[in-house]
């Protein structure tokens, strides 16, 4: 199997695995615990209605994003260092950049555009009239495009960790 095909298959597996984790978290926690992922107008309405404390939502955002980034990096290292046995910075960087962005695409298309924007599960009581905000596809896709640049530092970290793990062999 060619290197490119292998990485594409692994990127799809990575996206599916991390997508299952994120979906499970969303289902277990419910929409209000995920309010920090909602469009700003919906967030503001939820805060105004007193359904969620703004400070608590900010703390949840930091906590769950730190957990998410840690798991993303860890899952990358499993694929790159353990499965692929890579030891070079550039292979670690490139593969993780592809994996991160494949999940970002999966997130924007499947989790956000198809699931979030099109199911009643995510509609929070008191915000039912905000259909345009719930169907704001651009809000979700902008994060994919921002990620093309914003994920470079995370890929650099994985590249460095790939070298470090390589030195331990």
UniProtKB/TrEMBL annotation:
Keywords of the record, alphabetical order, are: Membrane, Transmembrane, Transmembrane helix
TM regions (residue ranges): 12-32, 66-84, 96-123, 143-168
The molecule here is called Uncharacterized protein
């Amino acid at each position: 199997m060619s290197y490119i095909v292998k990485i594409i298959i692994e990127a799809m597996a990575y996206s599916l695995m991390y997508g299952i984790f994120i979906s499970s978290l969303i289902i277990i926690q419910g929409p209000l615990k995920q309010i920090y992922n909602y469009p700003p107008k919906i967030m503001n309405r939820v805060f105004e209605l007193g359904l969620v404390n703004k400070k608590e939502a900010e703390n949840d955002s930091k906590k769950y994003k730190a957990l998410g980034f840690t798991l993303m990096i860890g899952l990358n290292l499993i694929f790159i260092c353990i499965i692929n046995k890579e030891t070079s910075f550039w292979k670690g960087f490139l593969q993780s950049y592809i994996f991160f962005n494949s999940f970002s695409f999966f997130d924007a298309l499947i989790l956000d555009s198809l699931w979030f924007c099109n199911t009643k599960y995510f509609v929070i009581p008191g915000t039912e009239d905000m259909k345009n905000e719930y169907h704001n596809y651009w809000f979700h896709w902008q994060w994919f495009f921002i990620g093309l640049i914003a994920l470079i530092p995370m890929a650099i970290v994985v590249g460095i960790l790939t070298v470090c793990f390589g030195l331990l062999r």
